[in-house]
Each structure stands twice: as structure tokens, then as C-alpha cells.
Request: fold
Amino acid sequence: MASFVKTVVLTDLTANNAIIPSVFNRGIRLAFNSKGTTNTKDKFDFSSEVNGAYSTVQNALVNLATKKESQKYDEEVGTDIESDLLNYAIASEEELVHTANFASLDTVSLLNSDIALQNLALNTLYDTENMEYINSISKLTLQPSITDHDRAKFEAQFTMSDDSIIGTTTTISI
Amino acid sequence: MITFDITEYLNTDASTLDASDVENMKSRLQSIITNMQPTISLQSNSVIDSLILTPFSEIFTAAEKGINCILSDVDLVNAMNGIVCNCDFVTEFLEGLGASSLLEANVSGMVRLTFNTNQAYEIDSGEVLQFNDEYIFNYFTPYNTPIKIYPYGTDMTAIQSENAYALHIGSFSNYEPNSWYADIPIYGPANVSVTAGDMASLNSNASWYNNVVSATALTDMSTFELPTTLSELLSLTQSIQPSANFSTRHNIVSYIMQKFPSTVGVSPVMASDNEMKRDITLFMSPAQNCDIYVRGVETLLTQTEYVEATIIGSGTLAILSDDFCPTHVPIVLKDLAIMDTNGTFNTLSSDTTPINLLDSSMFVVEDDIQGSADFVSDMYETNKYKFRVYTTTTELDSTSDALVTNAYTDTNSKTWIAITYLYDPIFEAIDLFVKSPACQPINSVKVRPFMPCYIYNLMVDYQKSTFKYFDRQQSVDDVYSLINSLCYPLVYDNAYVADILLGNGARGVNSVYADCYLRYGYNRYNAWEDTYIVTNTSAFTGINLKTIYTIPTAETYGASQRSIGFILDLDKINFNETLTK
Reply:
């Protein structure tokens, strides 16, 4: 898999002589279970770190599986996939694609918004201009397939702003 | 010490937190984290965001609200507006500010001890009185001496630094006095129910007990009530910011109001004020002069003094009283009466301006001042001045014309006169306190009653719509209360009177004008030169009362906004109504 993180060495100095770290967007890796679900069966792997675009992808996958309006302080978090599946609203794969497309757009919008804010803060911190310390998502393609009446499988492919591509497959079930 | 538990201020129910507050806090924390740990992912749905940042945002939001509550609770203005998070904390905080001393605040008043024998008495300063079989009062004894009561006629001017009082004549029998009284300041617990006229029980084992005819409350002593709600406590605390010195105007007001919470008004006059007419001390000297003008009660009390007098001259009645030390500090002379051969006192009056003439009949005796200054620098103090009444201009009123021909044709014959004047008991108690060793300010402080502007006619022309209700009696009461409690920085303005009338239903107010006398010093008898000096009163007719503050002659005596107080009787308020459509 191609490297997607902008490589910056520790000796790089900004105008205010602050040392710019080489890695950003560091998070805790979620150890998905064998079926890749993101519900309570998720496990944290605190000994392992995820960073850069992989961290963004992990956050995006969690968002895809999060029910819309389930977070009381941020209504933008989550998608309708889970609720549509739960409500048997999806009768065909065409409808699932429709739901997946909206979920994809919502997720990209949410994550890119967060990334833009954080990049702005980092540019301020390091006294730089328009540096993309964290790559945004250029494109998220979701290819769903129904595996059961309440279970769907998604193949997701992320294209980052540095043109790197990360593909993964996950299953969202109730 | 106030023990403080911040968790009491934390709202532990996150569901009650305002979402926008939490989001705002989260945003601020994100900025902090980005600055401190710039590499950490703070994106939505990240583990740090979901499991750390969001819960901590809730905790910090709750903590912030708690801290805001604390800050609000120590801001009395907020608390005054009813924004109180923790009543117990605020109560303790107020007590820390000195409000607790209020809980021990005393009411002040006076007791009249009436004796059957005119002789000297000595009462231990620790003696107590009991009113209504319940309330224990102490004598106010600023000096560390017993209470000494001197016989009637004693020259009290030479007696200083003692708890000393003189007997005065209380009643007559067969033209001779048969009871004598002394008025002594007392203090007792707040929230008591003692009213003027209530009798007190005394120590029956005391040596003077058998000579006491009665012990009677001279004033109501229920005027100050302890705060029962936090709101009242706040209001009181704010108005009497604790202070224990006379260094600033505000401190003086606070100090007086703390010691005498029921005082109507306190107006300090400092060295830089136009009203200060005593010698100005040197620049930067700590001993600056300060005159504290006090209005202790809204309605001044009335005192009648009996003095032996001599009929002088012939034809027109002229009287000259013996020199006497009055029981209280006379503020305005209200009446003079003379005893006829039947033992009855008959009021003297004049044809046109009774108060002015009566007032000009009472003189402070200055028997050791040669060519005295143009004004009495110590006027109105409670120093026990000697007074005398001398009048040649008074006439007997129509009901007592017979007195002239029947009783008082003999020059040099003796009789009794009754002198009735107004006084302020709280002012006297404050003056006594300030002079006492318990206070004794470093600077030269004199406590004085306001220079009286006696209004004998207040005329208000107003309009009333036909068939619309106008509460006339309430207007009279409100105007009376306003005029008699005015104290700098609140100064008289016709607008206040107009507001009262409009508020009670009048359609408009055309004019407010008054007939009054302003007195800025006692009249004096200079014994050295044997002259009677009447220069300290000005009469005004049909004026706007506001102009009373800027009378050039009066200002030279220090009579202006900070030192003038109004005296207005209820029956001197006259409304003139004009009906309109």
C-alpha cells in the first residue's frame, strides 16, 4: 500500500522555530472482530497506534456504522445505514446503494470538516500557511451488498487528498 | 472559615447540561489539546474524541458552571437580583463580610426615668431595664462611670466625660413642680416590640428605686428588624458595607448605619466641601475636620421643657426665662406657653409668622465670648448649652387676652413657661457614641442634626381627570415621607413630588411651592456685650424648595445640599385640585 502521509522529518522547523512532528492524526487502533462489526464487540488495542490516513479511515468506518443522531452533542455524526437496515427500509440493493451514497457523502463531509479545522489550528500553531498536516478524503466509494434481511456488507475505498488509495471491506450488521 | 466543596457546585447529571455549552467547551478543549499535543487525532468518532474528549467536556462544562455560580454568589449585585446558587454559602459569605454583627445589632431608644424628688442620683452602669416582662435593655453608657443624674437647675455645661444627665421638671402641683425626669439612651435586642409609652421594670433593690415614679419608653424601639430572608440580608449588607473608620464618606455612612441601622440619613461633610465651615486643617494632615449630619428619625419627637421666667416690661407682655440646659438638642422651637394664675399653660403666638417669631425667642447663652464670630461653630451639638427665652414681640392669642390684664401686669413677677421643641433622639445617641471612648475618631468629627428647613405650607397645584380616582391621602403620606427623609445625595426636586402625585392618579402637576424658614444656627445671647443676636434664620414665601440649597447668606454658614434637612408636618401639606377633561 502506498504511503499517504506527508513525510516531514523532525528537524523541519517552522517560522517560529517549532519542531514539526513527522506523524499526525494519531489515535488508538480499534481491533475489529473477525466479522468486522463496530458494535460492542469492538476491542481497543491500546498498545497499537493508528495514525495519518489510517486514523481518518478508522474514524470514517466508525461513522458509517454509527446511527444518525445518536450523539447528543453532535447531530452530524453517524449515518442512516443502521437505522434503515433495522427498519427493514431497504428492500433492494438499489435502495441500499442509495443509502450508502448518502452515508458516504455525510461521512466525508463530517471528517473533512474536522480535518480542515485541525489543519487550520496546526497551521496557526506552526505559523505555516495552507499546509495539509492531515490529508482529507477526496473520495469515498461504498459498494454494498445485502447478506441477510438485516445485514449488509460494504466494500469501502478511500481516496485521500494526496491521491493515495486505501481500500477495505467491512460488514455492518444489527 | 468557609469550607468549600466544589463537587456541591457540579451538576452531575449530564443530561441537564446545555448541548451548546458542551460543544463550546469541547471546541475550546480541542484548541488546547491541539496546542499541547498537536499530533493527536481529534476527529469525530475517534476514540479520543468519543471516550475522552466528550466526557471531559461534560465535566469541564459542569465545573465551569459551578465556578460561575461561585463567582455569582460572591457578587452581591447578582445575588441581589435573585441569582443565588448556594444559599448556605452566600449566608456564610455575608457573615464573613460582617453581616453577622448585624445579628447582634441593637435597637436604640430612650427611657424617661421620672422621680418624685429633685436630688442627685447615681445608677450603676450595669443596671438593666425590662420592658413588657420580656425584653432586657441596657443603659447606653459610653463612659466608664456610673450614670449620674444631677438635680434640676444644675449647670451641665461644665460636666464632661461622664454619663451625666440632669433632672427636668415633669409636672406641677399648686404651681410648684412635683416630679422630675431624666431621659437616658438605652439599647436592646433587635426585633423587640417596645413602643413609646411602654413601662419598664427596674431593679427593686437599688437605692434610688423608691424615688422612681415610672420608667417609660420615650420612643418606639421596634423600628429595626433583623433580616429574615437572604434577600433582606443582602440588601442590608450592601447598604452597610462593614467599615470601622471615618476615613471616607462611604465608610462614615457605613459605620453609622451599621451601629444604628434604623437611621434615616447620614451625610458626611468633609474638609473640601462648601458646607464645611470649621477651620480647615493643614494639607495632608490626617486630622481632617468632618461634620456628620444625621437624620435619625423621619418624624422628630416633641419635647416640652418647663422653665421659670420673669415678666419684664409692662403693657405688652415680655418674658425672660432663667438660663436652662434643655433635655434634648432643640432643632425647631414649636411653641411657647406661659402659666397663668390658674396654673394652666396658655400658648403664646404671633399674628403672622408664629414659628419664626417663636424660634427667634430662644437663644444660646454665650457668656464668655467677646465679639463672637458670625456664627456659632458648635451649633447643634449635644454639648449641654444653656439656653434662655427672651421675647418682647409675642402677644397672647385671642383666647388668653385676659392674662395680660389679670396676671402679668406686675413687672418682675415670676411664673413658669413651657417651651416645646422638636428633637432627634437617634442623632443624640449617635453623637454620644461618636464622642465616647469606644469610637473617638482620629480626626475632628462632629455629629449634627440637619440644619432645619421648616416648611409651614407646601402647596401643590395639580390636575385631575374627572371621574378618575386620585389617592389623595396616599399622596399626602408619600410626600410627607419623602420630604422628611431627604438626605444627600438625594436632594429635593419638584419632580419627586410630581411623580408621587402622578403615581397616585393625578393627571398633571402645575406647580409646587413652599413657605418655609431655614435656620442655619442658633440665635445667640452674648452676655459679654449683653446683646441678643437674631441673624441665623431666613424666611421664604412661595419658593421652589430646591432654591433653598443655594441661598448665599445660608451658604456662608454651611447650609447647603449636604447639610439641610426638611421638616414638614402632615397638616402643612396642601393640595389644590383642578379638574380637567
Summary: Chain A touches chain B through 35 residues (CB under 8 Å). The longest helix of chain A spans residues 93-126. Residues 1-11, 36-42 of chain A have pLDDT under 50 and may be disordered.
